[in-house]
Write a sequence for this structure.
């Protein structure tokens, strides 16, 4: 029996190209254009092909600003319809192009400029999650925290310090290029390690606090801006999740898993580039501390799914069983390098995440997936559907994800932040480059590893 066409779940609507005209694109890479053409040839479904051709280059087409500072490349990457750069989003937005760095010198220059810019952002404020391309002012200037010129938002999230390491590690492994790694980057690495150690709060309270004058419950860190109480465990505190929503319990498990991976990557960079054995050894010890603490504190018994990773814990034995759409997430742990896909604890956790027992799981007539409180109930987040596909080894599941993503696009040719489960015309953010890039990464991966699914 022939496979059902992906197009069967696409809503009716105009099928027009959505890439900007060539002269209006922010950046052009010949290697990226060749990749688009090569993958597109393998895609039989016309709507899936159109969405891929729009999404894969969306970050380069619409969000990057490549210039120079002191004769060196400098790259600022906005998240889309918000003219600010998140350390998380900017890294994730360029990841689909990492495999093409050896083929394109200008693409290497863009990555090197982003590595340099992120280092300066970390040194400006290691607790900030998003930055401006200049001194400001920010729309969040009235937040009750230590706002500095150039900071867009100051929500402390562990992953904000992990993603720059992920970017640097992948860049260096691919290119062996030392040039972005000057003393500024070295200083940023020291700042990252110091900040993560402080946020373990093993010996004293954190200097960080945050409050916003709003009725939004998830816009504020609890307990006068310092987070709910915790018992010292060796895990790192996080005031906010990668959704930019406040954590309920202060130990955000996926963020700590990501930090363990990032610290080991950082140790390798410090040894290979700077011969900084002392700081590299500190990173290894820190990562090992986190591994032990995660094994002891983060794996909890669920009444139905058995021993699984909790989403958040507090060290007192309390846990939140859930998963959110933004990465790092429990669903994304293999993608981030924390564990293999076939890890038994991960597989039990995955079964929970993709079930009705996850309070943020949403199921509609044509699409199902992880949502979250950030945009309200009954909304599927395409980010999580893409991550489900990226972490699956099952052809039927991957195809199911592709079909849902075609439907969730709603005929727009692009991905969105969240989509109403039964109406793809109701969505948030028409220009959300992170999800566009991640979708492109999924399709390109399927084309390379499981091309029959596209043909």
């Amino acid at each position: 029996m022939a496979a059902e066409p992906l197009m069967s779940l696409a809503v009716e609507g105009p099928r027009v190209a959505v890439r900007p005209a060539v002269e209006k694109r922010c950046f052009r890479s010949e290697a990226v254009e060749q990749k688009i053409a090569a993958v597109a040839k393998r895609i039989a479904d016309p709507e899936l092909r159109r969405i891929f051709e729009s999404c894969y280059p969306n970050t380069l087409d619409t969000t990057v600003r490549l210039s120079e500072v002191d004769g060196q490349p400098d790259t600022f990457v906005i998240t889309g319809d918000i003219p600010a750069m998140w350390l998380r989003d900017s890294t994730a937005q360029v990841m689909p192009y990492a495999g093409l760095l050896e083929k394109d010198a200008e693409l290497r220059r863009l990555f090197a400029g982003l590595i340099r810019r992120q280092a300066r952002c970390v040194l400006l404020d290691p607790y900030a999650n998003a930055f401006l391309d200049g001194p400001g002012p920010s729309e969040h200037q009235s937040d009750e925290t230590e706002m500095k010129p150039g900071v867009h938002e100051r929500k402390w999230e562990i992953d904000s310090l992990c993603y720059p390491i992920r970017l640097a590690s992948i860049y260096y492994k691919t290119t062996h290029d030392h040039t972005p790694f000057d003393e500024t980057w070295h200083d940023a690495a020291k700042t990252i390690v110091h900040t993560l150690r402080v946020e373990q709060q093993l010996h004293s309270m954190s200097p960080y606090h945050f409050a916003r004058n709003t009725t939004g419950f998830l816009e504020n860190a609890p307990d006068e801006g310092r987070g709910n109480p915790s018992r010292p465990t060796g895990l790192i505190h996080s005031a906010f999740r990668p959704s930019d929503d406040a954590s309920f319990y202060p130990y955000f498990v996926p963020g700590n898993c990501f930090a363990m991976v990032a610290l080991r990557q950082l140790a390798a960079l410090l040894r290979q580039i700077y011969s900084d054995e002392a700081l590299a050894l500190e990173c290894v010890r820190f990562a090992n501390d986190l591994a032990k603490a995660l094994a002891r504190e983060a794996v909890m018994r669920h009444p139905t799914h058995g021993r699984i990773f909790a989403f958040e814990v507090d060290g007192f034995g309390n846990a939140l069983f859930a998963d959110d759409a933004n990465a790092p997430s429990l669903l994304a742990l293999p993608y981030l390098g924390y564990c293999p896909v076939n890890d038994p604890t991960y597989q039990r956790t995955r079964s929970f995440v993709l079930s009705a027992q996850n309070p943020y799981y949403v199921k509609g007539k044509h699409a199902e997936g992880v949502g979250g409180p950030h945009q309200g109930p009954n909304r599927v987040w395409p980010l999580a559907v893409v991550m489900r596909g990226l972490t699956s080894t099952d052809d039927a599941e991957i195809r199911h994800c592709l079909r849902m993503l075609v439907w969730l696009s709603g005929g727009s040719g692009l991905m969105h932040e969240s989509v109403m489960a039964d109406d793809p015309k109701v969505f948030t953010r028409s220009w959300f480059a992170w999800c566009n890039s991640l979708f492109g990464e999924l399709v390109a991966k399927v084309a390379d590893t499981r091309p029959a699914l596209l043909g």
Q: What stands out?
A: The chain has a mean pLDDT of 95. The longest strand covers residues 64-69.
